[in-house]
Amino acid sequence: MHTRFLDHRPPLTALAVIGALVASLFFHGRWLGFLSLTLAFEILALLAVAWRADGRFSIPVSALTLFISLFWAWLALTLLWTPVPATSGLNFWWLGSLPLIYWVSLLTSDAEAYWRFVFSVTGVIAVLLAVVALYQYFHLHALPRSVFLYTNSQDAFLNLVTLPLCAYLLKAVAARHRIRAAALSAAVGLLIFVVALTGERAPAITLIVGFLVLAVVVRSLVPRAALGLPFALAFAAYGLAGITAHSEAVGRLATLAHPAQAAATRVVIWRGAVALLAHAPWHGIGLGLFSLAYPPYRHAGDTSAGFFVHDDYLQIAIEAGWVGLLLFLAVLGSVAVTFVQGLPARGEDDGKRIEMAGLFGALLTVAVHSLVDFNFYIPSILVLSGLILGRLHVLSLRPAARRIGFSLRPALSRGGYRSILMLLALIPLLDFSAVALADHEYRVGLAAAARGDWLASDRALAHAERLFPDSDTVRMTRADLYRHLLLYLPRNAQHERTHVYHLAKHLLRRAAALNPLRPETPWLQGELDAEHPSLTGAHWQRRALACYHRALALDPRFYPARFDIAELLLHQQRPVPALATLTAGLPYWYPAQPKILPYYGLSAALLRAQGHPVEAARVSQRAEAIERAFPDNAMSRKVALLAETPNARGWDVP
Asked: N or C: which end of the chain has fewer CB within 10 A?
């Protein structure tokens, strides 16, 4: 390691934080490589801070630092009882981005230079995201969401940047820096215009809340005309968005006149989430497990993806328990206390007062917005919030603030201290690297399987399994690969077929132990039993049905299990319970996708055969709508066969 590089390059910490922010913008819950890169940059930032400290630390004593550390420690403690260690472990680091970046910002030796660099680059990044969103909207005629999957998340991120920029704008106006004020006005107007174009209601309301906080705190520190500048920019941005072709900015805001109707989709989610909370233990179900535990409590009319509660406080209570929620609320409360107690008196340091108002207003926007969304589960928002939180705390410190100072140098030499630092940083870095490589190998395996290259797929999946041994997904996918391989192995290759069958069974048992909440695992176990009775044994039907019912217990809208239960019951000449199983799933909302066509096709056929033509017509209409949306999909051509031939699966019944 080049110690001079670490010793004489102060921006290294800031560069690492910027790296974490940029990487986090591209993680949307799927590509674990981006999450691993984000976390690696965060660890490097913390390493750089500790390296420069040289074993001598001075930590300001505050309620904010105490509670954010206790919250992070509680998240770590929840890993002791989670039923899905891999998911909860990743989510610990994922949610830990907020306290980790806060600690980096708190301990950095040159807070002013660090903040100026990091937030200047962050402002440029926000402007670039806004430009990309405008290109999407006006040129591609698509949703203006830049790199985000969800427009509300983009808006929350832009609001976090907008409020501090407004504070700096007011400072520039008060100091009569015209060029700076003009540049900041253009940036603020652009960011608000993009938020307005999305037409989202919560970001608009929370932005106004932030502006009001800023106005109340600085009302006597800047000229009255300047005080109305952020409001004027917002009014102009929303007015321009309102007259832009096809913009829903004003139309969607008008729905706030009927709040019950505006929040109807959220209320459906919250009802199921509250029911889950009532059955959850006081210490929580485990980090990141809401989407896995939610299906049995999910309302039939819930049209969300089912990943988030759309209320971060409720989701934290479910996943981290009441202790986690109370500690998180304590963090938010201590932010308000830090702001109020650290705010300079009028005339004492007006520039600091204005900046603190902008920072607190930004944090308030995301805290209020998170009542109806999942901002605290978006890594980029967590990184930016930790950065702003650290800056607010630094500004709030008084010269006589109490500190806890300690030094590790009497017990350790410089070389020993830095060796321990490197070792401590290397452990999570190697872990993150393994997760990223496993994710890459997993995707290589999927691509090879799609090409029909079974051997290459198995090699890649086996490599992914070794790199990420706690992942149930890799084992489940590898078992599914073996299940498909069994369909191609000759019937006379009994030894090979038995070996592959037992390998698949072993992988599924291990996957179920690693994650007992995923319905796909018992469903695949049932598929193996149903497709290969000669390998399963005389009770293959009973075993397969038990697996399918276990999958349905985990997720009642898991229609592949319903379809397979119906097929087995038809094979047993039991059409009435087969229809009952199918129709029990029809009230649920499903996304329009071709793979659901066999389920709809078999349901319509049995409804028609058992004298329910009206219901059959309704189900057929659903299927026809999907077929029209996907006219070239081969799945639609299989519906009739699957509906009319109970043994279309091709069971190898001896």
From this structure: C
575, 589, 592: which is closest to 629 by C-alpha? 592
Q: Is the pLDDT of residue 423 over 90?
A: yes
Cα gap 206→313, rounded to integer Å: 17
**CA contacts within 13 A on the Cβ side of 264:** 7
Strand partners, 60: 403
pLDDT at 259: 55
Reported residue count of the chain is 654
Closest-CA residue to 442 (of 424, 462, 427): 462
CA distance 633 to 625: 13
**Alpha-carbon distance 341 to 356, whole Å?**
11
User: pLDDT band at residue 610, thresholds of 50, 70 and 90?
Assistant: very high
What pLDDT, on the 0 to 100 scale, is given for residue 350?
87
- Are 532 and 487 contacting, i.e. CB atoms less than 8 angstroms apart? no
- The predicted pLDDT at position 648 comes to 34
Of the listed ranges 51-60, 85-94, 143-152, 163-172, the least confidently predicted one is 51-60
State the sign of the Cα–Cα–Cα–Cα dihedral 80, 84, 90, 92: negative
Angle between helix 111-138 and 178-198 (nearest 10):
50
Q: How far is CA 652 from CA 15, 20, 489, in A?
A: 61, 53, 12
Residue boundaries of the structural domains of the chain: 3-407, 471-555, 556-654
Q: What CA–CA distance (Å, rounded) separates 532 from 520?
A: 18
Long-range contacts of 541-548 (CB under 8 A, 24+ apart): 541/568, 541/571, 541/572, 544/568, 547/522, 547/523, 548/522, 548/523
At position 585, the amino acid (one-letter code) is G
Instruction: With a cut of 60, say whether residue 489 has pLDDT above it.
Output: yes
* Both structure tokens of 621: 């209409």
Of the CA atoms within 13 Å of residue 374, those in its CB half-sphere come to 24
Dihedral over Cα of 573, 579, 581, 582: its sign: positive
pLDDT of residue 251: 55
In angstroms, the CA 157 to CA 172 distance is 23
User: In the predicted model, is pLDDT for residue 266 greater than 80?
Assistant: yes
| Mean predicted confidence (pLDDT) in 362-390 | 96
CB-based contacts of 638, cutoff 8 Å, min separation 6: 597, 598
Q: Is-contact 74 327, C-beta < 8 A?
A: yes
Tell me if the domain spanning 471-555 has CATH number 1.25.40.
yes
**pTM of the predicted model, to two decimals?**
0.91
DSSP for 176-187, written as a single string: T-HHHHHHHHHH
Residue 25 clears pLDDT 90, i.e. is over it: yes
Using alpha carbons only, how large is the chain's radius of gyration in Å?
28
C-alpha to C-alpha distance for 582 and 520, rounded to whole angstroms = 18
Q: Residue written as tokens 């119906």?
A: 566
- Per the structure block, which two tokens stand in for 119? 């937030």
Judged against a pLDDT cut of 70, whether residue 252 lies above it is answered with no
Cβ(335)–Cβ(75) under 8 Å?
A: no
**Angle formed at CA 386 by CA 313 and CA 123, multiple of 5 degrees:** 115
